Amino acid sequence: MSSAQQRLSSISNQLAAGAANPAKQRLLAKNPDDIVITLAVRTPLTKARKGGLKDTTLDDLLISLLTTVREKSNIDPNLVEDVCVGNVLSQGQAYIARSAVLAAGYPVTTAASVANRFCSSGLLAVQNIANQILAGSIDIGIAVGAESMSTNPDGGAPQMSQQILSHPIASQNQQPMGQTSENVAAQFNLTREQIDEFAAKSFQKAEHAQKSGWFNDEIVPVHTKVKDPKTGEVKEIVVDRDDGIRYGTTAEGLAKIRAAFPHWKPSVTTGGNASQITDGAAAVVLMKRSRAQDLGLSILGKFCGATVTGLEPRIMGIGPSRAIPKILSKFSLTKDDVDVFEINEAFATMGVYCVNKLGLDESKVNPRGGAIAIGHPLGCTGARQVVTALSELRRQDKRIAVTSMCIGTGMGMAGIFVSEH
Question: Is the preceding peptide bond at 22 cis, omega within 30 degrees of 0?
Fold first, then answer.
């Protein structure tokens, strides 16, 4: 079959699928008030305290990414009215966000804000900008997710009042994330073998994607400086690829890694089957379709909507199993209508549970690997998933993606995106 015939067959299949579900057809329709994405890029994700971005502070990370967005967006920066930065760990977030916007070459008329709902902060930033555009508050905005876990280590939960600590549910917020992973494994009878197998597949998919160049159109390079911890020498480098992917990873190899939390049963979580501590950032440019057309901009896709839900903090990892059905219900879609699921792999325990609980086709879940293999910069992930999902939809010549993640303190969030490549 020729490439033209393959393309025609693909279009026919998509039309047939859309006709089978009127809700899917409505989702794929193009309307002037759609919130569209005209640029979606990310930095490489690198190992915290070890990788190429270990000495790059949050402000420098934001300046680098926002400068690239300004240069690549084909938009007069004077038209950008607001930038929302999803970030979890940094002190002085609001000051850093505003300063970085100005330092990246945007005018004083471009405002800035921050969003923090833990691991969903990047997706929350997308939703915040989209909602402002829908409400008519702004016309054009940029949603960013960014985290420097090297320079802003996670200090954990704050001290709680006695009233909170005495509440049987609220006090669960004090549980470390590792303990919630073990709680999921214990409550839902997950085995170490299942968990290591899931993690190994993440590494294998990411390795294949990196070797095949699938990440190339996602990533923009970062010019930065790195300090040699032994000699103290500082040198300029260009970081242009993810560095957490361990080639040749197998379930058998992961099975040899000792339990990270032997004091919590069943002690199945390890450094090999949990997300990596990582530095990185991602950005998405949003506006109405009518505005993008007026400016002559190419449209990559559209943001359809997002939702959030809460659940017991002690098993917060299963958040996507609650949030995904909720967002699908709001759009009258089924899991079969979705071409790609980007589910954050905070722990392989939650990945195994959510995929099994929802009955997902594993080939559709994180086709390029997930946070176990490439890392989870907390505030970045929600935006990074959007960048990855749109790129993967283009590669597969598919249309609909769902992104989702569990959220510390017991929540889940999910969003729906459509590619218009």
Answer: no
Confidence of residue 153 (pLDDT cuts 50, 70, 90): confident
- 184-217: burial string, b at 16+ Cβ within 10 Å, e else: bbbebebebebbbbbbbbbbbbbbebbeeebbee
Instruction: Find, among 150, 154, 145, 153, the residue nearest to 56 by Cα.
Output: 150
Average pLDDT over residues 407-414: 97
| Residues involved in catalysis | 119, 376, 406
DSSP states of 51-84 = STTTT--HHHHHHHHHHHHHHHS-S-GGG--EEE
Chain segment 93-138, per-residue pLDDT in tens: 999 999 999 999 999 999 999 999 999 999 999 999 999 999 999 9
CA angle 242, 245, 247 (to 5 degrees): 135
The whole-angstrom separation of Cα 349 and Cα 272 is 12
Q: What share of the chain is helix, strand, coil (3-state, %, to 5)?
A: 40, 20, 40
Residue with tokens 């393309």: 7
Instruction: Give residue for tokens 């038209």.
Output: 79
Q: What is the pLDDT of residues 306-355, one digit of tens each?
A: 999 999 999 999 999 999 999 999 999 999 999 999 999 999 999 999 99
SS3 195: helix
Alpha carbon distance 102, 129 (integer Å)? 18
Neighbour-count burial of 130, counting CB atoms closer than 10 A to its CB (0-12 exposed, 13-18 middle, 19+ buried): buried
> Do the Cβ atoms of 341 and 359 come closer than 8 Å?
no
